[in-house]
Amino acid sequence: MTLRRLFTLLLVALQLSACGQSAPEQKSLARPKGGAPAYGDALITGSIGEPNTLIPLLASDSASHEVAGLVYNGLVRYDKNLKLEGDLARSWEVSPDGLTITFHLRPGVKWHDGKEFTSRDVLYTYRVTVDPKTPTAYSEDFKQVKKAEALDTYTFQVSYDKPFAPALASWGIAILPAHLLEGKDITKSPLARSPIGTGPYTFKEWIPGQKLALEANPAYWEGRPYLDRFVYRIIPDNSTMYMELKAGGIDTMGLSPVQYQRQTNTPEFLARFNKYRYPASAYTYLGYNLRLPLFKDRRVRQAISHAINKEEIIQGVLLGMGQIAHGPYKPGTWAYKPQVADPEYNPAKAQQLLKEAGFVMGPDGILAKDGKPFSFTIMTNQGNDQRMKCAQIIQRRLKRVGIDVKIRVMEWASFLTNFIDKGKFEAVLLGWTIGQDPDLYDVWHSSKTEPKELNFIGFKNAEVDRLLIEGRGTFDQEQRKRCYWGIQDILAQEQPYTFLYVPDALPAVASRFQGIEPAPAGIMYNLIKWYVPEAEQQH
Amino acid sequence: MANYLIKRIAMLFPLLLGITLITFTVIHLAPGEPVEMQTAMSPKVSAASRARLREFYGLDKPLHVQYLRWLGHLAHLDFGRSFAPDNRPVTDKIVERIPITLSLNVIALILEFGLAIPIGILAAVRRDSLLDRGISVFVFVGFAVPTFWLALLCMYFFGVKFSWLPISGIHSLGYEKFSAAGRVWDLAKHLVLPISIATFGSLAGLSRYMRSTMLEVLSQDYITTARAKGLQERVVIFKHALKNALLPVITLLGFSLPGLIGGSVIFETIFAIPGMGQLFYQGVMARDYPLVMGILVIGACLTLVGNLLADLCYAVADPRIRHGRS
Amino acid sequence: MSEPGRGPFQEFWRRFTANRFAVAALCIIVALFVLSVCASFLTPYDPDAIDAWHVLLPPSAAHFFGTDELGRDVFTRVVYGARVSLKVGFVAVGIAVAIGTVVGLVSGYYGGWVDTVLMRLVDIMLCFPTFFLILAVIAMLEPSIWYIMVIIGLTGWMGVARLVRAEVLSLKSRDFVSAARVLGASDRRIIFRHILPNALSPVLVSATLGVAGAILTESALSFLGIGVQPPTPSWGNILTSGKDYIEFAWWLSLFPGLAILVTVLSYNLVGEGIRDALDPRKQQ
User: Which GO terms describe its biological process (chain C) (predicted)?
Assistant: First the structure.
């Protein structure tokens, strides 16, 4: 999942596969119908956007990862309780100094084209990931590797120079078929449109703009999935998608808070669908471009945070179904520090700080410094209704203290390339997924501020740098915890982001699907065990 | 006739040139240069491929050279490669999407003419009556209601509430297994809503135009003469007036096309129809310049062809034009 | 042209008022103007006042049209939205009419190669699906209300140009223009004093319909997320924000939807009323 952590500043609201820590809530009126597990039927889901590429190494959008996640496997994965377990690796050993990991691969696993999966594939995946010619956002963790070698067909060994805490988890990266890619240009590979993996589902067809279909892999090493097909329909409009759900055109979607709380509590809906609710592993934030003189002043950032009422945002945007974010970790996890001293809602204090920073109120109700009005633009991505609402609430609050805010919505790809990567933005309203490993080197370290890197706001703090390196360089959880708690204290003081909220994931699934077991990992982790009793099969 | 045809086709070239020129200008309004955009997409693009891109667009050359170079590529129907991550040739992406958009619009166009003409005639014959006013309110309501709102309402009522029609897309799941008749029926059910809404929205212009040409014809002397001769009103209208009133309507055929194609952005987004409008919207939002330029040029050319066909029909119907207006 | 004792305007007005639909539509348009001008007197609320604890409330005595997804008063937003939507309509059409009139006058009056070039330009512009052009330009620049008005105007002048040109051609040969020329009037004087006033009526009709079209275009742009940007309310963006709740918070889409429908319909009916009233064939 480290790889998901990275570039997927996801459209979180649309994602099902979010993970949770506390016990999920389930709502349904459907009689527990029981019925024996049976093969057959299809799960149809909808997506606003079309996947870009089905080679996960090259993908940076959630749609691509969602589909590719069913086609490929990693060496390790997180189980339902968010503990690492073997996937393509049957087992592994970590040397006593923590510097070497030896993976014992599962024998007899076949690629969908019938070739056997071996250590050669793993070695290839490593090499192509660190190849400077490969346009991928996921190479950072693998650059720490000192040596990677295939000891024999089923044994793969990597060693690191110094202890690297996220090492094991990083091998959750999707393993690619060497026999189809080696010696070829991966960016031109046909696998991008018809992938061949080792996963529970095999690729069937992709009709651009309409749908993408996967079929159960009968030879899957964990056993054939019950559901014969997984269909991914492309429905570009949110309202249309919800109507499709109600009309039975799709079986599952992530509900919006309004849909969850106000539109779907009818007996009719609850008889046909099960609703789930659990904290998503993601947070939304307002980030400032620290290279701009305006936001260089810490008091200004603190003032903005003081002026924003996070309670109001959670109420207005999530109808209360979420938690306030105080830092980059999920409440309840060991890396999360409760009660950090971040700015509370206090407009008077905001005004005080702005005054100290040299701003005076102009006649038009807008603050100004040296004759320049305090005005900036918040950019956010298109298609995320929650962020749009959030931006409007912030706009309103900041206007109260005399800050003029404009909002601009951009399409994702062009947002990244034209604005984020070039540093051409003032403030952004975005989200990060929260990985299981607390290492946040990529997002906060001062060396990661180049174009295309993730510390795009240009945050540079020597103490944070030190703590990040210390934190990823040890396996001792207590020591790591001290590091990350320290980082949270500094972030609370510095406010390079105003951390806003951790939303709840709110998926709904048609009630004919059985075998769903909500767990800290969410609901999608055991998709291959979902089934529809024979009598209720529809497709 | 051949002379007329040749003259008419020769006139297409300056228009085509103008279309490309305007498209080129529109795209260059946007800040930033295309290569910068594409290389930014993949930071690790090699210097060689960057050079290839610059070569393709001739970006180091002055604007007029860039334009001519682009025109050269167009002559070979080469619109370049999409900036989207799939990096496919723009021509391929557009070609696979044209049939659905075009057929939807042609069906809507046929329905539009089939309905608007009788409605217009009726309104003209019963001029200023309550029926005439009623018709005008009806067709203007179709024009005035925001299409996406009407579409969502129809989807909700016909799709969710009564479950009569499918909501979006163009095929049901399992379409591959249907019989030929089943497939047609399935497709038809999916297209009922988008086509009827598109048709409803476009009735106003044509039916009002039909009404006024019909009125004009009815006020001509020969109609008065026919009436004076004691011919039945029905004969007067259908035999004498209609033929002449219909002629100018033909030319509208071609001009209806751009409006319909423009509207397809909304329809295709809301009904999840994988056509050119949807592709264009995605391209515009992602700043996929080659794709946007490609669709603008092709969209305009479709209209050009539509106009040509309409003019030819007109020429066939009206001999005065064929032989040069004199 | 008209009966003795009556000016041409009275004659026009008599014929216009004979069409009751058009008169009703005109009343609606006037009422809307009054409404949008007096917006701040009509409602105690601030159109941008967010109330996160009272989102999507159904219509009540406190909120005639209910509240929206951020707890703002929908009635207030619809009333203020009238201002924005009408402004978009009028400015866009103003631009279109200005360009179209100039092009049509120049083209028709001078004829020759000027005419040929300008009319080819009109033909070319008419080939583009207008909405594609608007979409491309606005999405690539940025969706501000000014860009929206200007671009709609820049892509909507061709019809006016053709109308004006046709009118000029027919007027040019008429006696009073030839007389003016013989008397040594300058081109500019002939165009502005003699031809333009006579060409105004078809332009008026076309402008009325243009306002309706521009309001619809703005709402379509809003649906695609590039219309008038928040917090400024326009009918288009209120309607768009209501589209997700069409069955349950119907008030959020119904009122702005009706506002657009009724307004556009009224402009069309008035436009048609004017056309009919000016139609020489209808003179008894």
Answer: transmembrane transport
